Amino acid sequence: MYILGINAYHGDVSAVLLEDGDLVAALEEERFRRIKHVAGFPTNAIRRCLDVGGIDAADLDHVAISRDPSAHFGKKVQFVLTERPSLKLVWERAMSSRRVTNVKDDLADALGVTKRGLPPLHNVEHHPAHLASAFFVSSYGEAAVCALDAMGDFVSTSWAMGQGNSMEMLGRVYYPHSLGLLYTAITQFLGFPYYGDEYKVMGLAPYGDPTYTDEIRELIPLGKDGQFELALDYFRHWQEDYDMDWEEGRPDFGTIYTPALEELLGPEREPESTLTQRHKDIAHSLQAVHEENAFHVLNAVHEQTDANRLCLAGGVAMNSVANGKVRANTPFEELYIQPAAGDNGTALGAAYHVWHEHFDEPRSFVMNHTLWGTEYDDDRVPEIVAGQPDAASKYQWTKYDDLDRLCEKTAQLLADGKVVGWFRGRMEWGARALGNRSILADPGRADARDRINNRVKYREEFRPFAPSILKEAVDEYFIGHAGTHSEDREEFRPSPDPFMQQVYPVREEKRDEIPAVTHVDGTGRLQAVGKGRNPAYHTLISAFAEKTGTPVVLNTSFNENEPIVESPEQALNCFFRTAMDAVVVENTLVQRTERSEEVLSE
Fold first, then answer.
1. C-alpha span between 526 and 474 (Å, rounded)
2. Which of 17, 163, 494, 591 could pair covalently with 582 via S-S, beta carbons 3.0-4.6 A apart?
3. Which sign does the torsion angle of CA 200, 273, 448, 30 carry?
4. pTM, whole model, 2 decimals?
C-alpha cells in the first residue's frame, strides 16, 4: 500500500511517501521552489516523491493531508462569540479553511490526473499529525508525546500517551494562547521580521543577561496541569486587523504584538539596525522564560503519563537549547525529536496516522537517519564547471574512484584551513544539513566562523556554527548529552543525537580545541555521526581526525541566504559565487586555482 502524506496551505509545505509502512521519500517544497519556508501546495515535492519511489499517481492508494478544517468547530464558534475578532480575521481564517476543503483541485494538478482519478483523501488534524510524526517513527514502544508550536487547526499545544500503534490524547492548549506565538512576537519586536527567524533570537540570547524575565513572564501567566494563557492585551493576532498569508510563496505574518509591548519593554528595534545590549538582554530573557514555560508543560505531561520516554514535535521543538535541558528540568530520561519537527514533519505524521490509526497496522519503521531526499550523479560536473568564464584558469577538478582517497584529500583541505562544500548521497529531511548538503571547515580555527559568515554565508555574526562529531567521541567532548533512540525497537540503547536537535555544554578542556563550533556560552549543537548511518561522512571526519587529532568538523548548511542546495547545479553555483575553496559533488572534487583565489580577494 502506498500512502502519500502532504503538508499544504501552511508554512514549510512538504510531501512524504510510504510503502507498506516504510518511508520511501520525504521532501520539502522549498528545496525546489528556492523560497525559504515556502507556503502553498507542495507540487514539486509530491512529484519528486513519486519519482524516488518509482511509481505513478495510479499506484497511490491513499493521500493524507495534515489539516482538518472541521476540527474543534465548537471551540472556534465559542471564540468568535466571546472574543469578537475582526470580520477580516474571521474571513481570512474561513478562506484558509476553504482552500484545504478544495485541496483536490491542487492535488489532481500535481499528480496529473482528474479529481475523479484521485485516491481516497484523509484529513488529519494538525496536532495529531505532529504527535504521530514523533512517536510512530521513534523506537519507543510507549512514550509520552508532546507537540508545541504556534498554532494549527486551532490548537497550539497538545500531549498524548503513545502505546504501540495508537495514541491517547490527554491535553490541549487552544488558540489564541501559544508558546510559539509569544516567541515569534518578541522575535519581531527585536527586528527579525521574517517567518522562521526565531532561531536567530535563540542564537543571540547567550550574549545577554536575564534583565527582562519578570516583564516577559507578565506576557504568559501559567496555569495548572500544563495550561497557560497569553496576556492578550499585548497581542493582536487574536482580534485586530492582522494579516497571515499562507498563499504561494514565503509565509507572511503581520505584526503580532500591540503597542503595549513597547510600554513594557521599551522601543522596538528596527530591522537591520544596531543590536544593543538591551536587545541581547531581551533575547536572553525570552529564552529563559520560554524554557520555564516549556518545562511547565512537560512536567505536567510527565505527571499525567508517568512515562520515562518523551517524543517532542512542533516548531517549538526546534529550540535546540531548550531541548538539551529537558532531562535536567523534567523527570524524562530519554528523548526523541524527529528531524523535521516543524510543520514540514506533519506530512510524515499524517501519513503514519493513517497507516497506524486508520488501518491499525503494526509499527515496524524507525527513523534513525535523515537521508530520504533526492540524489544525483556527478556526470555533469565538468560541463557545468567548463561553462564558467575563464574556467580553465580558475578551477580544476578531479574524479575519484575510491571513497577513502576522496575523503583523505578533502580532510587535508579542511586541515589546511579551506572551506569545502560537501554534496553527496541523498538529501536530508528536515531543516538541518547533516553531512550530505553541508559546508565544512576546521573547527579548530577560530577565524573560520568569521570567514564563513562574511565571505560564504553572509549572515549575522552572532549566530553559532554546529559541530559534527564521531559518535564514539561524543563523551570526550560534550557533557550530559541525551540518548535518543536505538535502531532495535525492542531495546533502548542510549545514543547521542544524530539530528542536531539538542545543545549541550562543550567540556571546558576542549573549548580551545574547537573554538569555531563553541558558542559564546560554551555550548554546541552537536550531530553525532555513526558509521552505519552515514558511512561517507563518518569516513571523512575520521580522516580529518587522523590528520588533526580532532574528531569534529564545523558543519553548516550548504546555502547562501536561500534554501539548502538540492542539485549539483545549485551546489556548484553557490560555490562559484561565494568564497568557498572547494566543493565535492558525489565523487568529483572541484578546487579553485590560485588565479581564482586572487580574483576573490580583489
1. 9
2. 591
3. positive
4. 0.94
Q: How far apart are CA 248 and CA 266, in angstroms?
A: 35
Dist CA 379 CA 66 (whole Å): 38
| DSSP string computed for 406-425 | HHHHHHHHHHTT--EEEE-S
- Nearest 10 degrees: CA dihedral of 64, 66, 68, 71? 130
Residue 13: predicted pLDDT: 97
- 30: nearest Cα among 593, 570, 573: 570
As a whole number of angstroms, the distance between CA 141 and CA 584 comes to 40
pLDDT(485) > 90: no
Nearest by Cα to 363 from 193, 108, 140, 213:
140
Domains of the chain, start order: 2-126+344-358 (3.30.420.40), 148-340 (3.30.420.40), 381-601 (3.90.870.20)
User: pLDDT tens-digit profile of 531-586?
Assistant: 998 999 999 999 999 999 999 999 999 999 999 999 999 999 999 999 999 999 99
Contacts of 87 (CB under 8 A, 6+ apart): none
Q: How far lies 194's CA from each of 191, 252, 254, 449, in Å? A: 9, 7, 10, 24
Q: Which of 136, 162, 533 is nearest to 364 (CA)?
A: 136
C-alpha cell at 155: 490548537
CA 366/CA 491 separation, integer angstroms: 13
Helix locations, 153-192, DSSP H: 179-189
What is the residue type of 141?
G
Q: Please report the DSSP string for 217-258 in residue order.
A: HTTS-B-STT-B---GGGB-TTTSS--EE-SSBS-EE---B-
Query: Using CA atoms, how far apart are residues 274 and 156, in angstroms rounded to an integer?
Result: 33
DSSP 208: S
- The one-letter amino acid code at 200 reads K
